[in-house]
Write a structure and sequence with these properties.
By secondary structure, the protein is an alpha/beta fold. The protein contains twelve helices and nine strands. The strands form two sheets. The protein has a six-stranded parallel sheet, with helices on both faces. A hairpin with a 5-residue loop joins strand 4 and strand 5. It starts with a helix and ends in a 5-residue tail after the last helix. The structure holds ligand BV8 and zinc ion. Ligand BV8 binds next to helix 3, helix 5 and helix 12.
C-alpha cells in the first residue's frame, strides 16, 4: 500500500474517519495526562475558525496577494507604500476578530500541565487574546511596529496606521515588526523555541501546512529529541507520516476535546 494510502487508512484499515480521529484524540489525551513539558506549534489554520484567511487555503493570502512576494524586505524597500497597504488591510481585517475554541483550549491546557510552551508562526496576536502566557512568536506580531533606523519596537494598535508611518523619536519610516521571507528569525526567539522543544516530552503541531522553514522542521526536531509528536490538521501534510499521532479535523473542534 502506498505511503499516502497507508496514511489515509490511518494504519488501521477499515476504520472510519471519525473512529480514527476518536482513537487519535484518546491516545493524545492519554499522553497529555502524563506529559511533563508540552510544546505546541501553531500555524494559520488555528486562526481560520476566527475568520483569518490562511496562506494556502481558498482565498488565501498566498493567492490573493501573493503574500510571499509582498512579505519580503525587497518588496518593502521597492514599494513600502504597497507593503504597508497589505499590512493595513490585514490589521483592519484582524482587529474585530476573536480567538476561537482552539485558542482557548490551548490556554487551558497551559494552565493544567506542569510546563507548557506555545510556539506560533502566526502574527495575529489571537493566542495572547485567548489567555495563553508562554508564547514564542517566531514570525513577530502584526500589532507591533519597528523603526527601520533606530530599531525601536512599539505596540501600535491604530487601525489603519497613517500612510508611511514615521518613528516618533527619529522620524524614520516604521515597518511591521514581523519576519519577512528571506529574513532571519531573531536568534533569541529561535533559541527559546529549540530549548522548549529539547525539553519537551510531548509536542502538538496544529494548523500548519509545514512548508515554511525553520518552523516546518520543529516537529521533526522534537521527534529526534525523543518526544511524542501529534498533528491536528484539517488535511494531511508532508510530515503527517512522521508523527506518532495524526488527527484530521478542525483545531477548534479537536483541541477542546483534549480537555
Ligand atoms: C529563514 C510573517 C534563513 C509575515 C511569515 C528560497 C529563497 C528564500 C528563502 C527560502 C527559500 N527556500 C526556503 C526558504 C526559507 C523561507 C521559506 O521557508 N520559504 C517557503 C515559502 C518555502 N523561510 C524564510 O525565509 C524564513 N527565514 O529561513 O532565514 C534564510 C535567509 C535567507 C534565505 C534562506 C534562508 C522566514 C520565514 C518567515 C516568513 N514570515 N509570516 C506575514 O505573515 O506577513 S511566514 C507565514 O507563512 C506564516 O507565518 C506561516 O509561517 C506561513 C504559512 O504557513 P502556515 O501557517 O502553515 O499556513 P498555511 O496556510 O500554509 O497552512 C494552513 C494549514 O492549516 C493547512 O495545512 C490547512 O489544511 C490547515 N487548516 C486550515 N483550517 C484549519 C486547519 N487546521 C486545523 N483546523 C482548521 N480549522
Ligand atoms: Zn526611529
Amino acid at each position: 500500500m502506498s505511503k499516502i494510502g497507508e496514511w489515509v487508512s490511518g494504519r488501521n484499515p477499515g476504520g472510519s474517519a471519525e473512529n480514527r480521529a476518536e482513537a487519535g484524540i484518546k491516545e493524545l489525551k492519554e499522553k497529555l495526562w502524563w506529559a511533563r513539558h508540552v510544546t505546541v506549534l501553531t500555524g494559520a489554520g488555528i486562526s481560520a475558525e476566527s475568520g483569518v484567511p490562511t496562506f494556502r487555503g481558498e482565498g488565501g493570502l498566498w493567492k490573493q496577494f501573493r503574500a510571499v512576494d509582498l512579505a519580503t524586505p525587497e518588496a518593502f524597500s521597492r514599494n513600502p507604500k504597497l507593503v504597508w497597504e497589505f499590512y493595513n488591510w490585514r490589521r483592519e481585517l484582524l482587529a474585530p476578530l476573536s480567538p476561537n475554541p482552539g485558542h482557548f483550549a490551548l490556554a487551558e491546557i497551559e494552565r493544567r500541565v506542569p510546563h507548557f510552551t506555545l510556539i506560533t508562526q502566526n502574527i495575529d496576536g489571537l493566542h495572547e487574546k485567548a489567555g495563553s502566557c508562554n508564547i514564542i512568536e517566531l514570525h513577530g506580531n502584526i500589532w507591533k511596529v519597528r523603526c527601520t533606523r533606530c530599531q525601536r519596537v512599539l505596540d501600535d494598535r491604530r487601525v489603519p496606521l497613517p500612510e508611511m508611518p514615521a518613528c516618533e523619536s527619529c522620524g524614520s519610516l516604521l515597518r511591521p515588526h514581523v519576519v519577512w521571507f528571506g529574513e532571519m528569525l531573531e536568534p533569541q526567539v529561535l533559541n527559546a523555541a529549540y530549548e522548549a522543544i529539547g525539553n519537551s516530552d510531548l509536542m502538538i503541531v496544529t494548523g500548519t501546512s509545514g512548508t515554511v522553514q525553520p518552523a516546518a522542521s520543529m516537529g521533526v526536531q522534537a521527534k529526534r529529541n525523543g518526544a511524542s509528536v501529534a498533528e491536528i490538521n484539517f488535511e494531511p501534510t508532508p510530515l503527517s507520516n512522521l508523527y506518532d499521532i495524526s488527527i484530521l479535523g478542525k483545531s477548534g473542534e479537536i483541541l477542546p476535546q483534549l480537555l
